[in-house]
Amino acid sequence: MKPTSMTTRANHSVARRVRRSTTFAVRFAAMAFAVACGTKDAASPLQPSGAVGRVRFVNVITDTTRGRVNAILEAVPFGVNLTYTQSAPATLPSPATALYSPVLAGARTFVLKRTVDTNTTVATIPFTVTDRQDQTVYAIGGANASAVTSYITTDDNSVASSAQARVRVVHLSLTAGAVDVFVTVVGTDLSTATPTFANVTYQSASTALVLNAGTYQIRAVPAGTAAASRAGAVSINVASIALVGGTGRTIVAADNTTGGAPLRAFVLSDR
User: Fold this and answer.
1) What is the DSSP string of 80-102?
2) How many angstroms separate the CA atoms of 91 and 99, rounded?
3) Yes or no: is domain 15-155 CATH 2.60.40?
4) What average pLDDT does range 119-140 have in this prediction?
5) Can you tell me the distance from the alpha carbon of 139 to that of 271, in angstroms, rounded to the nearest whole number?
6) pLDDT value of residue 4
7) 67 FRET partner, CA 20 to 30 A, in 1, 118, 168, 211?
8) What is the mean pLDDT of residues 143-152?
9) Which fold has domain 164-269?
10) What is the side-by-side strand order in the sheet with 197-200?
């Protein structure tokens, strides 16, 4: 009976820690005001005073054991119970649904804790916040017991016209290797198309592409694939994405949840 009692107490302790993390996240969310800079108005988990940049965190950890995390920024919960491809602060409880959060300029650190055991640190990610600059911090790696590291992008979220949308590609699929990316009208024959972004390498981001509002298809093939072979070489396919005027989207190329194939892509709303 004693071992069972000790296990029960330990489980209750873990549950209390997770509840406390969630409570703190909600508490900070309730204190915040709306975020400006082009993103749809929504509350943010933080309310800094001084020079700020805006930060988003995305979980691309390819390890089911370490991959469900709480993201802690300077001892404040920034995202709770984040699974593969989820981002924060957008996934915090309402009303804290902003796409980015304002963060004081300077050297900052994300500490990632396992959601089911917040005594376990998955990774520590240092980064620098620049005044009036948007950035995304991606947590990557983890497959086959590899280290969880980071990839950080500077994000151009300037206002697009009401008739156009801004799109870019971030390549975080280790398995895919360098790729040619095609952004086309749905169903376009790739053998007659020109790569929209050519030779996009792992851990790199394309330039921003401004498109007329509409529905598009996004496909990736190994870089340099012969035109006649492209249709059979598609490794990543976003079959249909509706781009609304005045918005911005990031297409993230990624491995499967545990690394390797089948490869995938997911879409982040930037504004």
Assistant:
1) EEE-TT-EETTTSSTT---SSEE
2) 9
3) yes
4) 97
5) 21
6) 39
7) 168
8) 96
9) Immunoglobulin-like (2.60.40)
10) 197-200, 179-185, 214-222, 236-243
Report the C-alpha dihedral over residues 109, 202, 61, 243, rounded to 10 degrees: 90
Domain ranges of the chain: 15-155, 164-269
pLDDT at 140 over 60: yes
At residue 31, what are phi and psi to the nearest 5 degrees? Answer: -85, -15
164-269 shares the fold of 15-155? yes
Across the range 89-101, mean pLDDT stands at 87
Contact 33, 95 (CB under 8 A): no
What are the pLDDT digits (tens) for 214-238? 999 999 999 999 999 999 999 999 9
What pLDDT does residue 40 have? 46
Dihedrals φ, ψ of 221, to 5°?
-130, 160
Per-residue pLDDT, averaged over 144-165, amounts to 94
Burial code (b: 16+ CB inside 10 Å, e: under 16) for 220-230 equals bbebebeeeeb
